[in-house]
Amino acid sequence: MVELAGTIKVISKLLRDFLVAEEYAYREGFLQGVDQKVKLMAILLLIVLAVSTQNIFFLLLLFLFSLAMVLLSNISLKLYLPRFGFIPLFAFIIVLPWIFLIPGQPVFTLLGLNVTMPGIMYVITFTLRVTACVSCISLLLFTTRVSDLLHTLKSLRIPDPLVDMFGLVYRYLFTFLSELERMLLGRECRVISDQGVIKNWRDGGKVVGNFLSRTFSRGENVCKAMRARGYDGSLKTYSRNDKIGIKSIVFIAFVMIMVGIWLVTRL
Amino acid sequence: MHIPDGFLDLWVCAVMYIISAAVIGYSAKKLKGKLEAPQVPLIGIVGAGIFAAQMLNWPIPGGTSAHFVGGAIAGILLGPYAGCLSMVSVLTIQCLVFGDGGITALGANIFNMAIVDVFVGYGIFKALRRYNQDVSLFLAGWIGIWLGAIAAGVEIGVSSIFAYGLMTTVPVMGIWHGALGIIEGIITMLAVRYVLIKQPDFVPLPKEVRG
Amino acid sequence: MARDKVIEARNLKYRYPDGTMGIEKVDFALCRGEKVAIIGPNGSGKSTLLEVLAGLIEPTEGYMKFFGKESIDQYELRRRVGIMLQNPDDVLFNPTVREDLEFGPAQLQIPKEEFNKILEEISQLLDLKPYLNKPPFRLSKGEKQKAALGSVLALKPDILLLDEPFSAVDIGTKQSMIKYLNRLNEGGVTIVVTAHDLITVPLLADRVYLLNKRVIAEGSTRDILTNAELLKNNGLEVPPLVELGIRLGINLVPLTVDEAVRRLQEEFDKS
């Protein structure tokens, strides 16, 4: 059966993380002022560079670069780092055995196994790469309003209906999360005794099934509301004229420097 | 099961992006014209519902807990093409708004959870439903996610950036998610059965679309 | 002179796909500039009737005329008849309130300059300025209701159909919304609201339909709301003021507090 306390904890964490990030997206700051299209493409480019290099120096620099952007954008590092910290940790633990597994010059012996220099280098490089990547993508989360992001995707030629679906996922996720919470609490109040494993699971299935049928009827109502305002199958929006400002140009320059360093490390 | 950035080689990312884009394009083409206009938003909204339901905590013996992915459910309830687009929306928002899964790995994550899970789950349900609906639902949920996990194992296994090879990644992902997948199977069975019992003529989308 | 009828419906019937009856044998007429309330208990088909009147769902049987025309094209219908569904979470489906206000005009391809004027006007009147860039799920219920109203008004409809518009708003918002709707009406907008709570009806409607799958009664707000028997028989709560008036034996039963004060003062003066 669904565990209520655990579920509420998961939902709360998701909400808190999102709301903290969104709060910053609405504030003034360097990256908040960069053109969305430029920002998205640049961050994608930086991550691609990180994925295609073995150079520890570049990866470290990229991570520091992302932290500099965090500070320039008035984001608190104390809130920024914990947001994704578990991912590098997870990556580190997974690849840790390779300090023994890669053959090379033994540095010291641990539990009767040789820890090699190439092994250590690999583990550090891998962890650093994951860290730099996740830090770069978090820049996007902390400095971009979702509605702007969706607009950017459209302007990048992602088909409109698909982006509209993304928008609906974002819009209704929070409504559904609180609905789900209410349903679980309501159920918890009615169930008095421990009713055995099978009954418990069946109940859990009911909650999910019931919840999903509700999403369907919600879907029908929203379709009705859209039709009522003239929707006929293809969404139309007003064009926006985004200007590339000075912040965008400065950011492009920063990113170009990173690209330059990447090229130098490849020589 | 969301692969972060830094686990996959660039060429693997590119290949997975191309495959996923092709399947998304094909699904969209399949839906075009067959879908009544107002049903397009339904796909997104059901996606939001599945995303929310993924937050449910299912305790498993040993003190940890599992979450389900829901690709098979999407495929069965919406049909494979709409189900695929629904899961694509979920995964994209998870990546770009919630930081779940990498941006270079998005193609791969879509392939594992919005394509393999959805189409395999749907196919199993379709093929076995006539024998026993409950068993077909259970297997759809279980094998869908299991094959999705194995696909993830292959993707990271062939990547040289990740030191473990196929001989490690595939068995690890296969065994771990083969076990966890049982929960996915049970939830798929119970939840879909509930929807079908409550609304036996449940047709959120036209029949031709659901296949 | 009879005013021109903007919606005319005869013998409407709507049966849901699952077979349950929504409405039956409903005759309905709406004249330009009217303020009409459709009252009835839960499940009486109020929402269904409203959706049929908006042309959102096709009646199973019956005959309808919009603006005196037998058939009307979708564009004109959508532009001239605005409907606000009951749940504002269904109405506000965009990532931000501003985009929700934009939605209707953008679909009907109203020029952007014209929309900008509408946006300015509506957000001013409904006090929406602080929420424009916020996602709807961050709004309180009352704020959502106002934003939903704004997004329907953005099309500048001639006829406004409102399904239980005050179900979730606080007193202050309710009063300002009523004031605003009456002002719209003075400007020529025809208004239909549904309600199961009758307290707001006298403030907003001149004429009332009492619905319980079919039209049970139709008449002036005074005639219907002071007929305690009729209301009770149809599962509606008699407004306390009406109850008071009837029990006190006041000649002209009051419908609003202002009216009640006046009547009571008259009674005191007499004695």
Q: Can you describe this structure?
A:
The complex is a heterotrimer of chains A (267), B (211) and C (271). Chain A is mainly alpha-helical. Chain A has eleven helices and two strands. In chain A, strands 1-2 form a two-stranded antiparallel sheet. The longest helix of chain A is centred in the C-terminal third of the chain and has 32 residues, at 197-228. The radius of gyration of chain A is 24 Å and the shape is flat. Chain B has 211 residues and is mainly α. Chain B has one domain: Arp2/3 complex 21 kDa subunit ARPC3 (Orthogonal Bundle). In chain B, strands 1-2 form a two-stranded antiparallel sheet. In chain B, α1 (10-31) packs across α4, α2 crosses α4 (80-96) and α3 crosses α4. Chain B is globular, with a radius of gyration of 17 Å. The two termini of chain B are 28 Å apart. The model of chain B has no long low-confidence stretch (mean pLDDT 88). Chain C has helices at residues 46-53, 74-80, 88-91, 97-107, 112-125, 141-153, 171-186, 201-204, 221-225, 228-233, 240-248, 257-270; strands at residues 5-15, 21-31, 35-39, 61-66, 81-84, 159-163, 190-195, 207-212, 214-220. A six-stranded mixed β-sheet of chain C has the order 5-6-7-3-8-9, with helices on both faces. Chain C is globular. Classes of the chains: A mainly alpha (267), B mainly alpha (211), C alpha/beta (271). Chains A and B meet through α1, α2, α5, α7 and α9 of A and α1, α2, β1, α4 and α7 of B.
Features:
heterotrimer, A: 267 residues, mainly alpha, 2 domains, 11 helices, 74% helix, 3% strand, C: 271 residues, alpha/beta, 6-stranded mixed sheet, 9 strands
Query: Multimeric state of these chains?
Result: heterotrimer
Number of helices of chain A: 11
Q: How much helical structure, as a percent, in the residues of chain C?
A: 40-55%
- What would the average pLDDT of chain A be, to the nearest integer? 88
Mean model confidence by pLDDT of chain C = 88
Would you report the number of β strands of chain C?
9
Helical content class of chain A: over 70%
Distance separating the two termini of chain C: 43 Å
Task: Estimate what percentage of residues of chain A fall within beta strands.
Answer: under 5%
Shape category of chain A:
flat
> Structural class given helices, strands, pairing of chain A?
mainly alpha
**Rg of chain A, Cα atoms, Å:** 24 Å
Largest sheet strand order of chain C: 5-6-7-3-8-9
